[in-house]
Amino acid sequence: MAFAKQADKFACYEEAIQNPRKDVIFLTKTFQSEFHRKALRLREDFCGTAAISREFISSDFERFAVGVDIDSRAIDWCIEHGLSSLHSGSDRLELVLADCREFQDTRCYDIISANNYSLFLLTSRIDLIKYLKRVKECLDPSHGMFICDLTGGSDCFVKRKVKRQCGSLVYIWEQEGYNFIDASWQCALSFLFRDGSLLKRCFQYTWRLWTIAEVMDALYEVGFNKIRVWFSDLDEAEEFVYEETSNISGTVKSWNAIIAAV
Ligand SMILES: C[S@@+](CC[C@H](N)C(=O)[O-])C[C@H]1O[C@@H](n2cnc3c(N)ncnc32)[C@H](O)[C@@H]1O
Question: How far is the CA of 46 from the centre of ligand 1 (A)?
Answer without folding.
Answer: 4
